[in-house]
């Protein structure tokens, strides 16, 4: 498996830029939630304390507060801590917010000259979701859809395949490491060069999987190749033993508004690469037709 960051690296400093106005007690509580989320089997108070290098008394105060507010549950027999019922509420609210258009203020107009506006209307997601189900049924692999949400590439929909291994790292609303997965690379490849440069300036090409491309010039060359061939494939760039095939979804006016993909094991790619790529590209073409019918982007 891909070597993970140490627990202190992964959870002690989550912010990309070191601000001096952080509330450290809140940050510690959020680190606890992130750690528990990474361990669905649950963790004891002592395990959480040790992994986050917290004093056991401080750790217990945080756990009690999170449990009292519904963000954590404590198993009555094993006494391990698990995510609580308030987490699905937040998740549902977050997913719902992704489907709502955001108002563009005057201060945002300058940014919008470079970054695309959010194209996450419910009609877009709902029009493409049946295509994801068909793609998963045909390929027997999980399928995904992502699009730009201002400065970020955000995963908007997932259809799991029962017999395929679930990628727990991915969830609706996931953003980050777009340079390492095929969905992100497709959306970057078909974006304005100024947007790509701005995105790479704020999102360093850090390793995610064993084959992540971290050289900027090489990454730009790959984006050009994606446009030439019309699809992207990542081979263990995002995750060990996991590959992804993605293709762009065009609006009727010709701009790329989303990307569609499947994930699969590396041995499956070796056996069925050509056929699977054809299925993904065909699904993307079907999505384009659905958008035309739905008239989401009619002038």
Give your account of this protein's structure.
The chain is α+β, with helices and mostly antiparallel strands and 299 residues long. It folds into two domains: 7-84, Orthogonal Bundle (Arc Repressor Mutant, subunit A), CATH 1.10.10.10; 97-294, 2-Layer Sandwich (Beta-Lactamase), CATH 3.30.450. 47% of the residues lie in helices and 16% in strands. The chain contains eleven helices and seven strands. The strands form two sheets. It has a five-stranded antiparallel beta sheet, with helices on both faces. The chain is globular. The model is unreliable at 1-18 and 101-115 (pLDDT under 50).
Please summarize what this structure is:
With 299 residues, the chain is of the alpha+beta class. Helix content is 47%, strand content 16%.
Characteristic terms for this protein:
alpha+beta, Arc Repressor Mutant, subunit A, single chain, 2 domains, Beta-Lactamase, disordered N terminus, two-stranded antiparallel sheet, 299 residues, five-stranded antiparallel β-sheet, globular, 16% strand, 11 helices
CATH architecture descriptor name of the largest domain: 2-Layer Sandwich
Major sheet size, sense and barrel closure:
5 strands, antiparallel
Largest beta sheet: strand ordering? 4-3-7-6-5
Q: How many beta-strand segments?
A: 7
Shape: globular
State the helical fraction.
Answer: 40-55%
Number of separate helices: 11
Structural category: alpha+beta
What name is given to the CATH topology of the largest domain? Beta-Lactamase
CATH class of the largest domain: Alpha Beta
In total, the number of domains comes to 2
